[in-house]
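Shipment paperwork, digital attachment
Item: protein structure file
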Amino acid sequence: MSPTAEQSAALRESWRGILCASAQEVFSMMVGAELTTADAKSEKKSEVTGMVGIAGDLSATFTLRCAEKSAVRIAAQMLGIATEEAAAQQYDAIGEICNMVAGAFKAKIGLEAQCKLSVPTVISGRSYELHSRADYDRLEMPLLYEQEPLWLSLDIRK
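Attachment content:
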């Protein structure tokens, strides 16, 4: 029996906490950093955006957006290298973090075997917006990494 629209909406809303917990676990394990909740009015710094597609029983896109200095710092901590060296590795590091958060999320919601992840894509620049042609529900939240906002979103295809 398929869930009703209300049950489905409630289930998806519970995914917000699961997505947050997945990101916190990955950052703790891989970056050695704690993510904390942020004010929903936090500035959206989209200088670096990592994306991973989820396909299968769930069709969605996971996105992480942050300032470039945060991306460089994440790479430095993740790889145990100096910040100067990490600048060249920031995109790979953000892509890998996205891959790991999306993987942890799909495992936590019980769809680990039923969904595949795409290869991560990372976009950088100072003035861009992402647009999707798909009809989707968006779960979005800001978290703080070293007092800088990270924006996580999960665009779930309807």
